[in-house]
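go over this:
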Amino acid sequence: MIPLHSSQTLGTGTGTGGEAAKGAIRQANEAVILTAAEQVFAGAGFGGATMAAIAEASGLPKANLHYYFGSKQELYRTVLARTLQDWLVPTHWITPDADPRTAIEGYIRAKMALSVQRPHASKVFANELLHGAPVVKTLLATELRDMVGAKAAVIEGWIAAGRMAPVDPIHLFFTIWAATQTYADFDVQIRAALGCDTLTPADHKRATTHVVSLLLRGCGLE
């Protein structure tokens, strides 16, 4: 994505078309900023990150960051909230009428893909949790907990109907998170063990196949 600079946010379009263009520019700028923020926060932590470093990584003027997010604290909160939201979205497959194998496999594959596509976001979130989740504790106790409870109830229904093997639904989520996020959070360890400098698409495909197969077998779905 090509960064859109502040001069472009001052377009003179009028009417519905002009407002739509401004909205599109804002969304594009925010996406660029958030991607850069994930990278900087992952590398330097919240304390070591600066708005100047994030601006440099995004290719946008520092003034744009303050215009869209106000402060480093607000930008950090947005990065965490967006990461959690993106992790929760794939649970939409888990519904009472869904095929258990298709739903659980879809969720696992989506989480593995996010670890590949957004590794910095996962590292920022992991670091937040390692420090006691001072910023996202409320989100964890509300949105995350509500999601886990609702989806665990769906899985309990599948088990009761004999559609999958008996497992602890809540701990199944913990296992999925651990197995998928490790490829982002601990990629250094994985690369060291594999003896490579980077994980290739073939490596990611191999890892995804393994995690999917292992977890589906544990659920009696393969």
